[in-house]
Amino acid sequence: MEILLCGLPSIMKTIVRNKVKNTLGGRLRVFIVGAAAMNPNIIADFKNLHLKTLQGYGLTECSPLVAGNTDYFQKDDAAGLPIPNVEYKIDNPNDEGVGEIIVKGPNVMLGYYEDEEKTKQTIVDGWFHTGDLGRIDENGYLYITGRCKSVIVTKNGKNIYPEEVEYYLNDNPLISESVVLGIHKDDDDETYVNAQIYPNIEAITEYLKGSVPTKEEIWKLISDVVSSVNKKLPNYKHIKSFGIRDKEFEKTTTQKIKRYGDNMKVDGKQ
Known about the structure:
Blueprint: H1 2-6, H2 10-23, E1 30-33, H3 40-48, E2 52-58, E3 65-68, E4 81-82, E5 87-91, E6 99-104, H4 116-122, E7 123-124, E8 127-136, E9 142-147, E10 152-153, E11 159-160, H5 162-170, E12 175-184, E13 191-199, H6 201-207, H7 215-230, E14 239-244
Parallel strand pairs: 1-2, 13-14
Antiparallel strand pairs: 2-3, 3-4, 5-6, 6-8, 7-8, 8-9, 10-11, 12-13
């Protein structure tokens, strides 16, 4: 979007921006983004259209906001700064500063209804354990890296966050969505990265100039995407195998991909 606008005269930039804004109702001041991290390039594109877009982070148990970018303090790739009267910190961080995000403040729930055991496991010494992984930079901005339950640990103790690999896969227009998980081979105790991929058939058809793609063509194109993603990642994070799905992943009511059940089945190993 930035490249397209940069190539236009000032008057045309204004026309495009007004057209987009009017399409969205004409009085839109700001987008608030939550639930999942947003590609910072998309946020930059919206800014070029004069549509302010702010990311935040929260949970139902925290009523629900924990952190957010504001009109005055913003980082496009971060979830933001803590809201007033709320603290967060990283529990048991690794060498990269990544660990579980824990939260304290008046917004945190008293506990789970009629579930004292789960409450004790989740709220420890007044700190709510979110189950989310993240890091905090030198300015206090929070970055979400994944979920504790989904992290892949190699034999050598290195952590692989599926969401990071999925980000690179899903950034390619030929892929609609993906799930990354760790698998083991029968003759090896190492953990390998596997990607289950739902291709964007419409984009692939357009890429092939209108011809209906065969299974072989889809496999070849997705294989090329996987190879390009691996070039962006260190060796231990490389996708070693992948499967291609013929239907979307099952999702929650908030449209998050479920990381259990049929979604976690490994099909079509490379």
